[in-house]
């Protein structure tokens, strides 16, 4: 049995696209072959987990899916009758529990036992189910449809790393076949995304990630071996990693979207020229968008509303500053329980809060601070370099550089 | 616009792209031509790309104008000075020209795979194989494996095997290559190698797939190896040949080696080339004192890797000369490298060679104390190269001898790998 990691090499695309041909023809003629779609999805998920150390992950995925299925089902059933806050918080906590335990394992606690729970894609599946629970609390999702729930949770193109969709949006697409005009547009976008993805992932990401980044790491490490606390080489390490991360993840996202489109599902886009952002807030509207919007809606906004409603803090600005830190720190923790992910979250929280303060300051002193294309250009450059600095922290190389020489 | 037209606009370019790809990869004619100049440059490029690929090797060893002879080795190959084999061959118009395969990190396992891409060459040409005792560390020195590995090597190896039953050597190498990261991550190659390691024949269906793979990978190799351009020949070999006298005279060249050596090793007492000393030794000098006193080259998996190379030479009846390199004695004294141990490992290597009929051996291992014999810590230079030339020139300029090798698979065994050599137990090992 072959083992096929998602989008890992050109063969994967050949197999997957061939398997999707019948589905695509059906969609073109206005029919959605749901059973076939489910079978193809399950087959390709199976092929991720069918060999070696992946088998254990496959088992973990099954257990995880059952757990989330029961939780969401239970909460939706409950929500029809009542709406107590503690039940909502309990359901959310239980939904987050698996990834929390896996992150503990990542940090070295009960590693042998807890890491058994982990599998490729767990962090993204968590967003899907937690999102459903929150939407249910807010009254957006009504009935529990077991099959639709599983199609959503285990949507194969975006299983391993997103983009993170929302249940209500997904269910609307997945219930029907798109209009023919619309579907042809989607196919056009799919082809464009696939080929752009090939350039990003197999050429640029390879070049930055496998050739340039390791080279600069090596140069920096040789300074480390000479006992230096800092090295000029850390600068190109940061930039090469930043370029690698963008092309790798954006390339992957393009693939995931292309396959979604072919399956007639318009998953949300993930990247929109992030390195051209004029400030850090705009950066997060362009970088890993499905994640940052998820956090905006389900962490930031809820935090702000809760604090204002309960009047724990009166000053709106203080609340939003606090919310930025909470938001980005949670994101940092979600990445993993290491000092560098958390510091990364903290840096972005601080930058978002600082950015807001700057905008308030500008508004107060209207007319006295110049605003033209030069200052905008400066802002883009500044934002880019700041982001690269945070990626130097994020990539974890500093941990090796300082603590594992 | 009609829907049909829209679909054409979307998928037309895709079809065109695939047609172009098929054209490039599958058409039977060659897309590559290597000029004499670029082959000369390749012969001293020391690029890992050469070890990985087959296009340049095929072109060089089939070249009708220049008789390129493969020199398998590692870091020592790139120590170019006036008496380096490539320089002497160039300057004295020898009827051979060394073609260097290897750089730091290419040990016998690397060369076993490297050779799979050039079996025909090994059948028709002589070869030189430079053995560094430094490879023979306990777990082998194959940290550089990934740098030199390419799937094309495995495909060639499998195609060479055909439907024959894998030999003990094939099984051994397959089991070792399976452990390497670059192979482990590829389900296709690890499945094939598992099969070979288990001693199972390849099926004809597998061989057809392999032939298709070969077509694609070798085309890829031919298209992309040429991107690595070096100018060592122009900038280093031809420059190093300038001071050489017009006619070859061993004594005149020895004097030249002495003078060049002296001039270039003036900043230290170890007779290490100045540039090497400042960049590689000076900063760590203190830490290196006595640092090698526990080094042991006598017990190593590398002996079995070495055996796999010997087996391959024997299979192809290659007339091959082995070179065993010395270490810089002045430096070894400083680092505490045990000379007795070194000589024991050399004896073990030589026993492995001679008992199987490999009798062309240039053993330089005792000469590392001679003045300007070494270019740096473990690499020969100047007078060392000249001493080697006394072996190489007669061998490579003379006629090809019929070989008579008797391979003994016991040299693959753990018993041999772990044998602590002494004069008695070597002769007893059968």
UniProtKB/TrEMBL annotation, chain A:
Keyword Isomerase: no
Enzyme Commission identifier(s): 2.3.1.-
Keywords linked to the UniProt accession: Acyltransferase, Cell membrane, Membrane, Transferase, Transmembrane, Transmembrane helix
Subcellular location: Cell membrane
Membrane topology: Multi-pass membrane protein
Chief location: membrane
Family matches, as InterPro entries: Ac/AlaTfrase_AlgI/DltB, DltB, MB_O-acyltransferase, MBOAT_fam
Enzyme class: transferase
Pathway membership, UniProt: Cell wall biogenesis; lipoteichoic acid biosynthesis
Transmembrane segments: 12-28, 55-76, 83-102, 108-127, 190-209, 229-247, 254-271, 291-308, 317-335, 380-403
Highest taxon of source: Bacteria
PANTHER family per the UniProt record, alphabetical: ACYLTRANSFERASE (PTHR13285), TEICHOIC ACID D-ALANYLTRANSFERASE (PTHR13285:SF23)
Assigned protein family: Belongs to the membrane-bound acyltransferase family.
Function of the protein: O-acyltransferase that catalyzes D-alanylation of both teichoic acid and lipoteichoic acid (LTA). D-alanylation of LTA plays an important role in modulating the properties of the cell wall in Gram-positive bacteria, influencing the net charge of the cell wall. Catalyzes D-alanylation from DltC carrier protein.
Protein name, entry field: Teichoic acid D-alanyltransferase
Protein encoded by which gene: dltB
Automatic annotation (TrEMBL), chain B:
Pathway: Cell wall biogenesis; lipoteichoic acid biosynthesis
A Pfam family hit: DltD
InterPro entries on file: DltD (IPR006998), LTA_DltD (IPR023896)
Protein's UniProt keywords contain Cytoplasm: no
This protein's record includes keyword Membrane: yes
The entry's keywords: Cell membrane, Membrane
Family according to the record: Belongs to the DltD family.
The protein, known as: Protein DltD
Gene: dltD
């Amino acid at each position: 049995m072959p083992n096929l990691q998602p989008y890992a090499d050109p063969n994967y695309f050949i197999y997957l696209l061939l398997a999707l041909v019948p589905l695509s023809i059906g969609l073109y003629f206005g029919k959605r072959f749901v059973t076939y779609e489910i079978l193809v999805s399950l087959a390709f998920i199976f092929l991720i987990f069918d060999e070696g150390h992946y088998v254990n992950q496959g088992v973990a995925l099954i257990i995880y899916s059952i757990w989330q299925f029961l939780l969401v089902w239970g909460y939706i059933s409950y929500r029809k009758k009542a709406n107590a806050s503690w039940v909502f918080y309990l359901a959310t906590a239980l939904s987050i529990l698996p990834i929390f335990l896996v992150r503990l394992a990542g940090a070295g606690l009960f590693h042998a036992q807890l890491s058994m729970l982990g599998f490729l894609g767990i962090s993204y599946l968590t967003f899907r189910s937690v999102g459903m629970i929150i939407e249910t609390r807010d009254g957006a999702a009504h009935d529990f449809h077991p099959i639709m729930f599983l199609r959503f949770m285990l949507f194969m193109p975006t299983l391993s790393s997103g983009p993170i969709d929302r249940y209500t949006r997904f269910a609307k697409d997945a219930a029907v076949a798109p209009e023919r005009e619309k579907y042809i547009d989607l196919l056009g976008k799919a082809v464009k995304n696939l080929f752009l993805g090939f350039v990003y992932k197999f050429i640029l990401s390879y070049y930055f990630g496998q050739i340039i980044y390791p080279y600069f790491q090596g140069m920096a490490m040789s300074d480390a071996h000479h006992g230096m606390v800092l090295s000029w080489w850390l600068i190109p390490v940061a930039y090469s990693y930043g370029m690698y991360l963008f092309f790798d993840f954006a390339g992957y996202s393009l693939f995931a979207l292309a396959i979604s489109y072919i399956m007639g599902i318009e998953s949300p886009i993930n990247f929109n020229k992030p390195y051209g952002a004029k400030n850090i807030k705009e950066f997060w509207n362009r970088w890993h968008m499905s994640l940052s919007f998820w956090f905006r809606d389900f962490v930031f906004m809820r935090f702000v509303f809760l604090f204002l409603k309960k009047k724990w803090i009166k000053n709106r600005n203080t609340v939003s500053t606090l919310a930025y830190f909470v938001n980005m720190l949670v994101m940092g923790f979600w990445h993993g329980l290491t000092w560098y992910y958390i510091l990364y979250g903290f840096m972005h929280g601080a930058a978002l809060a600082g950015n807001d303060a700057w905008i308030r300051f500008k508004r107060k002193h209207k007319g006295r601070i110049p605003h033209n294309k030069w200052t905008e250009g400066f802002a883009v450059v500044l934002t880019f370099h700041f982001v690269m600095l945070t990626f130097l922290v994020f990539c974890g190389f500093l941990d090796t550089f300082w603590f594992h020489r | 616009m009609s829907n049909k037209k829209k679909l054409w606009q979307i998928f037309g370019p895709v079809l065109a792209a695939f047609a172009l790809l098929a054209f490039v990869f599958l058409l039977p004619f060659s897309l590559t031509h290597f000029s004499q100049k670029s082959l000369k440059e390749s012969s001293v490029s020391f690029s890992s790309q050469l070890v990985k690929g087959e296009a340049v090797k095929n072109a060089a060893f089939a070249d009708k104008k220049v008789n390129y002879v493969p020199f398998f080795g590692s870091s020592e190959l790139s120590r170019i000075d006036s008496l380096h084999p490539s320089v002497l061959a160039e300057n004295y118009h020898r009827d051979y020209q060394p073609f260097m395969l290897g750089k730091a990190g290419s040990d016998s396992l690397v060369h076993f795979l490297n050779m799979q891409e050039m079996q025909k060459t090994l059948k028709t040409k002589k070869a030189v194989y430079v053995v560094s005792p430094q490879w023979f560390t306990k777990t082998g020195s194959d940290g550089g494996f990934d740098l030199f590995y390419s799937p094309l090597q495995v495909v060639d190896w499998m195609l060479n095997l055909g439907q024959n039953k894998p030999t003990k050597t094939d099984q051994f190498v397959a089991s070792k290559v399976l452990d390497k990261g670059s192979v482990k991550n590829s389900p296709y190659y690890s499945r094939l190698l598992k099969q070979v390691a288990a001693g199972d024949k390849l099926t004809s269906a597998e061989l057809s797939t392999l032939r298709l793979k070969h077509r694609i990978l070798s085309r890829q190799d031919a298209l992309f190896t040429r991107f690595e351009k070096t100018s060592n020949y122009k900038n280093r070999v031809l420059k190093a040949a300038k001071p050489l006298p017009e006619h070859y005279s061993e004594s005149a060249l020895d004097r030249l080696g002495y003078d060049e050596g002296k001039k270039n090793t003036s900043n230290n007492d170890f007779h290490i080339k100045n540039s090497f000393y400042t960049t590689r030794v000076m900063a760590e000098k203190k830490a290196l004192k006595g640092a090698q006193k526990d080094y042991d080259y006598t017990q190593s998996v590398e002996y079995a890797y070495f055996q796999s190379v010997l087996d391959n030479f024997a299979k192809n009846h290659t007339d091959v000369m082995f070179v065993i390199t010395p270490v810089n004695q002045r430096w070894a004294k400083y680092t505490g490298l045990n000379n007795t141990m070194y000589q024991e490992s050399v004896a073990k290597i030589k026993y492995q060679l001679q008992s199987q009929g490999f009798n062309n051996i240039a053993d330089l291992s005792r000469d590392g104390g001679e003045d300007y014999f070494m270019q740096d810590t473990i690499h020969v230079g100047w007078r060392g190269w000249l001493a080697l030339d006394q072996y190489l020139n007669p061998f490579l300029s003379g006629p090809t001898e019929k070989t008579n090798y008797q391979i003994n698979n016991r040299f693959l065994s753990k018993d041999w790998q772990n044998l602590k050599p002494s004069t008695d137990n070597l002769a007893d090992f059968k």
